[in-house]
Design a protein that fits this description.
The chain is of the alpha/beta class. It folds into two domains: 88 residues; 193 residues, Metallo-beta-lactamase, Chain A. It has nine helices and 15 strands. The strands form three sheets. It has a seven-stranded mixed sheet. It is elongated. It starts with a helix and ends in a 9-residue tail after the last helix.
Amino acid sequence: MSDEVKLHVGARLRTRRQHFRVQVLVWLWAILVVSTLIAGWYWGNGMPLVVKVPAAVMFLLANLGAFPGFKDLFYSYERYREEWREQNALYPHEGRSQGAGDMSGKIKQVPLDFGGFGVNAYVIHAPEGDIIVDAGAEPEKILAATTQPVAAILVTHNHADHISALDEVRAKTGAPVHAHPTDADGAGIEDYEPLFDGQELSIAGQEIRVLHTPGHSSGSVTFVVGEDQIVGDLVLPRSVGRTDISGASWEEIEVSIRKVMPHWTASTRLYAGHGPVLSAAEEVENNPYLPPVAL
């Protein structure tokens, strides 16, 4: 494990411990507030309401100083926020692939606004050009994230929030589109390069493996870039893609999840269609929809 990964993991663990401490103290403080208010209320039993309420509040304030974690509650919260800010400053939503023989591709997350709904596009900065994944909205913002000529546009699945800017981005870059035939044909995408399960792409000097991962849509695919994966809506923060919509299937998404997980390592990052870049190890630990495995 590199020093950078160790630092990243350590920061996440410290933040998690701090978060747990904040939660414990908040619950203790809430219990104290309720119990002291009740005690103060009964202590003022028989008094008029205008006297009883101030009496309960005074009883609470008098007892707060005796609560050993009261000051720590605010210290812990501020320290938690500080560590979270430091962590995000050190590790913005982009990462470098660390696969053997494939250490060049840097994946940049591009958060987009799709009619008030957040969605992610990605730009893979390959050695000989840029590769755009999921042109879902705000084409100018996607293009602004590129630093080299665009060599290809990849599609994880055909939902509107992932392809609505596809035609405009293709028109402005002239880059070929790669999509799974089931989703491409279903969405009316024309003139595309078909993707299939197990395909090994070599685009702009970047090696990318394609895994067909249906479940959220029939033609969903996952792109394996080194140790990292661009998963579309297959895996989301503490969740998975919806299976209560047309073309979706819980049985298929469950199989697809088990298909991608053998490629995960302790340092794998998952670039999801919504939310922040995910740590595969943290999702295995905290995502209730994933089977428990050892990375």
